[in-house]
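User: Structure please.
Assistant: Input sequence and predicted structure:
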Amino acid sequence: MTKRSGAEAARTGHPGWAALLAAAVTAAALWGAPAAAQDGGADPAIEIDRSGVTADSLISRHQATPRDPNRGPVTNLPLPRYVSLKGGEGNARRGPSLSHRIDWVFRHPGMPLLVVAEFGHWRRVEDQDGAGGWVHYSLLSGVRTAIITTDMAELRSRADLNASVLARAEAGAIVRLHECTPDWCRVSGGGEKGWVPKTSLWGVDPDEIRD
C-alpha cells in the first residue's frame, strides 16, 4: 500500500486533506498497525529485540530458504536421530514452549529418545512406544543409549552367536551404546559389557554402523 505524502495531499486542492493525513499518520503510529492490516491485508512488521534473539530462534523463523527435510532446521543434524534423557525427569509438552500443557513425563535417566522435529530451543521426541512431545534441548544428551527389548538378552564376548555369554539383561534395561556392526552392538550396563544383536535393542537404526 503506497502512502501519499502531505505535499501530494495538499496539491489536490483541498486544504483540509493535509491536516487529516497528518492526524491519520499520528494515529497509525500510536496504534502500531496500518488500517490495511485490520482488514486482512499485509501483517504489520514485527520488531524483534535482537538482544534476546538466539541463533536457534532466528534459524527457526527463516522459512524462505529451501532446506533438507532430513536435517533439523536449527542444528542441521539428521532427522530423525537418537538422543538420551540427560536428567532423571523430562516434561514432554504439546507444543514448543513452556505455555503448552505437559502431555508426558519421562522419568528414566539415560532413556533413549528419537528426535523427529526441531523448533528453536525445543525438540520433538518420541520414546519406544511412540509417546512423547516437545522437550527443551537442555534436558537431552547426545550420549547414545538403548533399551533391551528381549527378555534375558545375552551379552556375548564377541559379535558371534557362538561366543561365550558374559551376562544377561532383562527386557526394559537401559544400556550404554558403543560400537555397532551391521547386526550387533556392544553395550554396557551394571558393570557388564558385551555384544548384543541389534534385534534385541531399541535406540539404534538397523543399518547404523558405529566405531
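The longest strand covers residues 112-119.
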